Amino acid sequence: MDIDKQLKLGHLLLMDRQCRSCGEIKNLVDEFYRTRKNRGPVASSYSYECKDCTIKRILRDRKKISKTFYWEYPDW
User: Fold this and answer.
1) How many CA atoms lie within 13 A of 26 on its CB side?
2) Is this prediction's pTM over 0.70?
3) DSSP assignment, residue 21?
């Protein structure tokens, strides 16, 4: 029995994760941001939202804040 052929390093590490926003299953290392820099490549050090959804969320929220907030100097 050859264990090396049956068990690869990819099976031990979580290589795929489902995005909580869009629900797609994507590659953990390439498609998700790391949240903890001081630890090794552990699955818990990656976010649960993919890079595409994170960028969309940031742009969407930034646009809401910039359009609703207009400051004017008080006219006394």
Assistant:
1) 20
2) no
3) T
Tens-binned pLDDT, residue by residue, of the chain (76 aa): 555 555 555 555 568 999 999 999 999 888 988 887 776 667 778 889 999 999 999 988 876 555 556 667 777 6
The C-alpha atoms of residue 3 and residue 9 are separated, in whole angstroms, by 12
Task: Give the start-to-end residue ranges of the domains of the chain.
Answer: 14-68
Concatenating the DSSP letter of every residue in 31-72 gives HEEES-SSS-S-GGGEEEEEHHHHHHHHHHHHHHHHHH----
Contacting residues for 20 by C-beta, under 8 A, at least 6 apart: 48, 49
Q: Which residue has the tokens 């490549």?
A: 41
- Residue appearing with tokens 């909580």: 20
